[in-house]
Amino acid sequence: TNIGGTADLLTHNKNALMLDTSNEEVLSKALLSVVTNESYRKRLAQAAFQRGTELKTWDERMQIEIAAVEAILAKK
Length: 76
What we know:
This protein is mainly α. It has helices at residues 6-9, 24-36, 38-54, 58-75. The radius of gyration is 18 Å and the shape is elongated.
């Protein structure tokens, strides 16, 4: 679903399906297209995997946060 920061991580029809889950017709058509279209499904999966490799790990993110807080504290 396209909520919160999801759109910052994923792109509709590139590496994900960003759908309004309250619209059952749109949701069912999108799911059917993924199930029935192998090349589309593989393209989405490959792009999603690639996007995942580009993201920082939890530890990397925490180190960035810690460094930012330490930099702020050092200025005081």
